Amino acid sequence: MGAIRNTLVSTARLAMGALRFCKDGRTPDSAYQSMIRLFCATGGASNDAMSSFLSVVRRPYTFQDARGVLGDFSSEEIDFIGSDIRERGYHVFRQRLQDEMCDELLKFAGSTTCVKRAMDGQGNADTEIPRFPRESPDAVRYEFREQDLINYPLIQKIMADRSIINVAQNYLGSQPIVDVVAMWWNAASARPDKQAAQYWHFDMDRIKWLKFFIYLTDVGPENGAHSFVEGVAPPRWDTG
Fold it and tell me: Which of 21, 172, 204, 209 has the most CB atoms in a 10 Å sphere around its CB?
């Protein structure tokens, strides 16, 4: 009975949070935490139900083509990519960003003010520094301010790219919203760092979400490639 009661309470808090969001565009933390609890309790079914509703009220955009930095996709290719993500949890694109674009972004990342994130055990001692000390980093993660990123013309071009938008809305089933634009450096470390999100975890940014990761430097198993557990169903936890 305790699990049923907790589920009902979470559902009520989530519904109240949805009304609050419709009123002022803000989601109370209690509603967000309730969404996570319901996600875990239902194995993701609660988020699927909410996503299905949004796909009805926010229909995908209609474009003449799906041409962009990821390729010039046909509708069949877009469908395949969407199915691959739903089945495996990710998709690796054959086409990469042009070298010139990567070089420009790398130059930006090497010359722009960034925030040195505090490592485990350092509290909230984040520090803003003039640029990433690539030759002698003394922290694990260095992040760039989101406003600096979205003000940069090339990043704006990627945000509005039709190949990316078409892939996103095929997977989501609705109009995509740019929720987070991020860029960071990860430096070598002797052990995983929680503040740098290097422990196993799952994200819950929105009801349904999709992230595009672009590497600007070469990576492999020996120097920090992003690790992903393929095709694992959402966790189903007892919230009682």
Answer: 172
The tokens for 182 are 């991020």
Q: Is 117 helix (H, G, I), strand (E, B) or coil?
A: coil
In the block, residue with structure tokens 């919203």: 177
Radius of gyration of the chain (CA): 20
By CB neighbour count within 10 A (0-12 exposed, 13-18 middle, 19+ buried), where does 184 fall? Answer: middle
Three-state SS at 221: coil
Within a 10 A sphere around the Cβ of 102, how many other Cβ atoms? 15
Q: Whose CA is closest to 184, among 230, 126, 98, 100?
A: 126
Whole-number Å distance between alpha carbons of 85 and 87:
5
d(CA 122, CA 117): 9
Which helix H or strand E contains 165, and what residues bound it? helix 162-172
Q: Are the CB atoms for 40 and 235 separated by under 8 Å?
A: yes
pLDDT category, 190, cuts 50, 70, 90? confident
SS (H, E, C) 78-121: HHHHHHHHHHHCCCCCCCCCCHHHHHHHHHHHHHCCEEECCCCC
Model pTM? 0.88
**40 backbone dihedrals φ, ψ, rounded to 5°:** -70, -40
Tell me: the pLDDT tens digits for 111-161?
999 999 998 888 778 999 999 999 999 999 999 999 999 999 999 999 999
